[in-house]
Amino acid sequence: MSLVASSRLPLREIAVGASALAALYLLPSFLSDYWLRVLISVAALVVASLSVSVLFAQLGMVSLAQYGLLGVGGWFALRISHGAGAPFELALLTGGAAAALVGLIVGLPALRMRGLYLAIITLMMAGAIQVLISAFGFPDGGTGVLGKSTGARVMMARPFLAQSDPAYFRYAVVVAAFCYLLVLAHLRGRPGRAWAMIRRGEVCALAGGVHIVAYKVWAFALAGFLAGIAGGLLAGGVGQLDGSAFPASQSIMLFALTIVGGAYSWFGPIIAGLMLRAFPALLNEFHVDGNIATMVFGIGLLHALMTAPQGIAGQLAGAFRAVGKFFKGNGGTAA
Amino acid sequence: MIEINDLTVLFGGVRGLSALTASLPEPVTGLVGPNGAGKTTLINVLSGFIRPAKGSVSVDGKDLKGIPVYKRAAFGIRRTFQNEQVVENLSAADNVAAVLDNVPTDGQPRRTLIAKALDFVGLGAKANVLGRDLNAYERRMVEIARSTVGSPRLIMMDEPGAGLAQDESEHLRQVIRNVHRYCGAQVLLVDHDVDLISATCAATLVLDFGSSIAYGPTPDVLADPKVRTAYLGVLEESA
Amino acid sequence: MPDFTPFLVSGLALAATYVLSAVGIVVLYRSSGVVNFAQGAVGALAAFISWSIVERGGPESLSWLAGVAIAALVSLAYGRLIAPRLVSTDPITRAVATLSFALILLGFMGYLWGEAPRRLRLPTDTMSFELLGVRVTLTRAIAFGLGVSVTAIVMLFLAHSRMGLQMRALANNRELSAMLGVRVFQIDGWAWVISGVLAGVSGVLLGDLQRLSGQTLTFAVIPAIAAAVIGRFASLPATVAGALAIGVCEALLTPVPVIGPFRSATPFIFAVGAMLWMQRKPVFVYR
Fold first, then answer.
1. What confidence tier does A7 reach under pLDDT thresholds 50, 70, 90?
2. CB pair distance less than 8 Å for C286 and B44
3. I want to staple C46 with a disulfide (CB 3.0 to 4.6 A). Which of A2, A177, A260, C67 is the partner?
């Protein structure tokens, strides 16, 4: 169940994924409208969490700006969609590209330095994005550079095939699956091998001919792209994005929950997405203060750092293995 | 062909290498000397990890100064490390592929090149075994396989013989002797095992305190009294 | 051309709070290797405690003391209880752990006090004097004075006292220091206390000068870290200079049209500039 570059095609995981996709196809009929919309957001956040986890699991890079980059992607997706009437897919890709570019431009100075500086610069990036987004807001049908409407706010046009909520949910799940496949393709190809060499040691990578900064840039661009796609998905799901919903703390939370969910596992980002969106929604239903969620997540991250770097997903996997061993052991000879 | 000219490396006040000059043409050359003599320093200069204060070094006629570190593998400079640097999450084949990604291939399909390299070191059957499941000797062989792909010019091996069993040691000697014939690369072998050096290297360079104290055919060099003194110390007359 | 003088004055006071926070970060990093992302959050806690005491009718003049004391305690608690469990991990993990601590504090403060707009009032706010034609409140003057004096005290302490020497030893080589008999655990503890005190003072002052808000004060760690980056996490004089530059720049941009609302991105620009400057020479793998 490893997100770390491995030569085997993860057939077992792909089979599990395929059956999960089938289950998810049927899911909308069982959910209330509210929870359907929550899960649409979860799908977008899963992609955002995947962006954090690719950087962390492959290269140990900490980016505290991914939710901010989600906002950047959402902004560009909305702008293109409203301004040029572009089809949803194009808006999505534009958002991804824009976020990748912004992330790179800002992160580049730190990519050549110690990892700590990347954490610092991405934290500041998240802060800067927060300032810009709260000042400019999101495009909602108006003209002018910022696309702010003076009248009624226009919702983002959904994809041709996915106008209704259930259809959009399935669409979002498919996009998320594509993002996973994109990451898988990277891991099994040149970038994955180069990243593995870099992870082994700078000396190993350099002696093997790997241009370390170039591959770090590639990873960071990929992460930015995924975050941007998540932003477009979120914008399409909710219809509009709120300028006050992108504080720097959200990026920190996204990072925290990705680690807690399990950065080294395929399943981790899914757990993270659920926690980030579904958990506060659950608390809301029981009228519990959202700040409690923040505290719980902070404690969770601290705990994960101190005891279980594999996160919840890793612990679940460990639990499954233990159960499996128990049953095998009962059969007589040792496995 | 390695040409070293007046090479000086300074670590603060310590002279890692001191005006070292040598010409190393043999297919397999040994590099020996007591600890701290500068052997690993010399290899690190060739790899590009250390920048010399003075002097130059060239391989096959090309001065290495202008070549950035990560381009040296493509140029043809490879090495294996004292602490093996095999990637645990990748299979043996992928470990080799990781280097093949960055070096010139002569048009042959990658799979063939990787298979050939692994066969050369005797790991043909273990191509799909993950790095973490290989034993220490197999990992060393993977490192050697990695260094033979893509037209290498110079393969530097830093103490490959350490801690090997008898049959592994024998196999290592065979591999080292065959490298030049297999891929045309020169081998620079650093090791403390004098038997290994004698069995594989036609010529040997001896370093002490950062400069050369002897160079020549291996048996002559190892019999040289200067070399014996440096390595074994002076025999004290008992009082 | 807007008159910059009042902004310069307020900028110096603001810069002084950044100086205090940044010095705390660098001193802690030098002795324990931890970049404390929770510096702002701890300061925010101090400010809220201080405000609460006054709200409940406590003595105004001592409320800030209680706030700073709590900040020192909380900081020490983290340093004694949590940081040791992470001592064998890499610097990034330890830094991210302080980030999680910041999250916990942020949630805690949000839960207890919420984000309603508030201002922390100190008794020195009402006293003021004239300087360069500008009215300067005593609070601002104290902030600046503290910034200068605390930095001087810390630098003298590190350079001339026994504990300062031990802290410098720790920063240089932790294991070696332990072998030489330096009480690593104790010295570490003191570093966390100093960092907490500086965070508390900075937080209380910022809560007065700017706004008493959990979010704002927590993320006031950003300018402090930017200053620490400028000082390369090693040089206190450079850190102080950086913090002053950032604070003054930020304040001076306030009346400037167009750019004004975005002045909070100033630390970011400075940090990026510092990083680019640090990379101007190629670094070799083995130094």
1. low
2. yes
3. C67
Query: A200 CB near a chain B CB, below 8 Å?
Result: yes
Mean pLDDT of the residues in chain A: 86
Give dist(CA A119, CA A125) in Å, integer: 10
Residues B165-214: tens digit of each pLDDT: 889 999 999 999 999 999 999 999 999 888 899 999 999 999 988 889 89
- Measured between CA atoms, the residue of chain B closest to residue A190 is B101
Q: Domains of chain C, with CATH numbers? A: 5-278 (1.10.3470)
Chain C residue closest in CA terms to A292: C107
Asked if A297 and A247 count as a contact pair (C-beta separation under 8 A), the reply is: no
Between B72, B93, B98, which is nearest A194 by CB?
Answer: B98
Residue A150 inside a domain? The answer is yes
- In the DSSP assignment, the letter for residue B130 is B
Asked whether residue A138 is domain-assigned, the answer is yes
What is the rounded distance in angstroms from the CA atom of residue A102 to the CA atom of residue A97?
9
CB contact under 8 A, A299 and C100: yes
Interface size, chain A vs chain B, as Cβ–Cβ contacts under 8 Å: 74
Q: Domain total for chain A?
A: 1
Are the beta carbons of C285 and B51 separated by less than 8 Å? no
| Nearest in space to B157 (alpha carbons), one of B28, B51, B3, B24 | B28
**Chain B residues touching residue A200 (CB < 8 angstroms):** 85-88
- Is B145 an 8 Å CB contact of chain A? no
Interface check for B82 against chain C (CB to CB < 8 A): the answer is: no
Residue B232: band (very low, low, confident or very high) from pLDDT cuts 50, 70, 90: low
Residue B77, phi then psi, degrees to nearest 5: -95, 120
CA distances from C70 to A75, A111, C204 (A): 42, 38, 12
The dihedrals phi and psi of B236, each to the nearest 5 degrees, come to -85, 135
Does some domain include residue A293?
no
CA end-to-end distance (rounded Å), chain C: 50
Report the C-alpha gap between A128 and A102 in whole angstroms. Answer: 12
User: Distance between CA A232 and CA C210 in Å, rounded?
Assistant: 35
Please check whether residue A271 lies inside any domain of the structure: no
For residue B47, the chain C residue with the least C-alpha distance is C285
Which chain C residue has its CA at the smallest distance from A131's CA? Answer: C262
- Verify whether the Cβ–Cβ distance B87 to A204 is below 8 Å: yes
Please, are residues A22 and B105 in contact by the beta-carbon 8 Å criterion?
Answer: no
Q: Which range marks the domain in which residue A205 is found?
A: 11-248
Q: Do A196 and B87 touch (CB under 8 A)?
A: yes
Q: Which of A4, A204, A211 to mutate to test the interface with B (most CBs of B within 10 A)?
A: A204
Q: Looking at residue C46, what is its pLDDT?
A: 95
Is residue A263 within 8 Å of A307, Cβ to Cβ?
no
Phi-psi region of B52 (alpha: psi -120 to 50; beta: other; left: phi over 0): beta
Nearest to A127 by CA among A45, A52, A71, A75: A71
Q: Please judge whether A206 and B101 are an interchain contact, meaning their C-beta atoms are less than 8 angstroms apart.
A: no
